[in-house]
Write a structure and sequence with these properties.
Blueprint: E1 50-54, H1 56-62, E2 75-79, H2 87-95, E3 100-105, H3 108-116, E4 123-127, H4 128-131
Parallel strand pairs: 2-3
Antiparallel strand pairs: 1-4
């Protein structure tokens, strides 16, 4: 570029749905999970750990899960499009196939807010770093 600065415009979209890079909806994306399209080139930036959380009122009412078997048959805040196929949603379907979905969220932040509000609808799988102290189903 020979010392000249090129003009670059950045439009930041933060949402849970995947924009279609092949369709020109975006040129670059940071995504949690697999790229979802074999024609895309990507690089893993980090691992994201998820944990099971529940509001204090739910845990006091229903007990604290202590083993993976304790997750089945409980009330959960479930995943809905566009996040129903992310890895943690598949984990929930595999680990707790007989759980009761008390409500659903179409965003990861919605899962977190449902827990933090004390709504008490059930347990939820959320990114571990997002929840913070006071919301873990385990202490």
């Amino acid at each position: 570029m020979d010392g000249e600065s090129e003009s670059c415009r950045c439009h930041l979209l933060i949402e849970d749905r995947y924009n279609d890079l092949g369709d020109g909806q975006a040129e670059v994306a940071l995504r949690a999970g697999p790229p979802g399209d074999d024609s895309l080139i990507g690089r893993k930036l980090s691992d994201q750990s998820w944990a099971v959380y529940g509001s204090r009122s739910y845990v006091e009412r229903s007990g604290r899960p202590t083993t993976p078997d304790d997750l089945n048959g409980r009330q959960w805040i479930g995943f809905e499009e566009p996040i129903e196929n992310i890895t943690p949603a598949g984990w929930l379907r595999a680990m707790a196939p007989d759980c009761e979905i008390a409500c659903r969220s179409n965003s990861v932040l919605g899962l977190l807010f449902a827990i933090q509000s004390g709504f008490g609808a059930g347990l939820a799988a959320v990114p571990d770093r997002r929840c913070g102290r006071g919301y873990r189903a385990r202490h």
